[in-house]
Specification:
The protein is an alpha+beta fold. The protein is built from 7 helices and 10 strands. It has a 5-stranded mixed sheet with strand order 2-1-10-5-6. Strands 3, 4, 7, 8 and 9 form a 5-stranded antiparallel sheet that branches. The chain is globular, with a radius of gyration of 17 Å. This is Molybdopterin-dependent oxidoreductase.
Length: 247
Amino acid sequence: MKKDNLITRRSAIITGISSLGALLLNGCSETSPPTYGNILRMGDMLTYHAHRALLPGQSLVKEYSFRDISSFPATGTTNPGDTSHPGFNEDYARFQKDAFSNWDLKVEGRVKKPGTYSIADLQRFPVKKQITRHTCEEGWTAIAEWAGVPLSLVLQNAGILPSARYVNFFAYDGFIDGIDLLDAFHPQTILAYGMNGRNLPIAHGAPLRLRLETQIGYKSMKYLQKIVVTDEFLDQGDYGWAWYTGI
């Protein structure tokens, strides 16, 4: 992707115009993420391309009021620092013991300035608060307020390179996942350090989680450890879940 295209993309993020979707759709048509398993996975990719082709790339999801905030169950991994958990992570347990004072997020890969960001560093960016509905793959929904920094600001601060196409997340509970740039630069895609007016609870991904409001809940990864920007799709193989689950 040429430099002038990157400038156009960033302008689109600021103004909310849909030209960004068309720009990235051209990139997606060249090489798509692989399809695994069965006809359901093929359907996932059909949904991905249909969303990219038919929906305005920067359409916002609905935001709610404080009175709509609901109870919010914690499912999946609820604490990687728990020694009884099969996904116990010694590093996470050490950070947790120190109230995450020594924790930082690594950002590397296809960026000009690889580096690390502490929670204090992330809180120096303009805060984005949003009250949104979480739609879990298990069938339940919940509404909460999230506070954090737009992922787009962190990527731009790190100097994302024009050739980049995917943003991949590595978590302390062992999960690895990724999104394309259209979702990464969506105005409501944030790195959340707060929930309902408080620091993000451990059960919900402390100290930092992704909030990807345009996709099903499990894509909003908890316990973030590292972000790696890549030119190519980071293939994790068939792990039983769709790579794209747009809603």
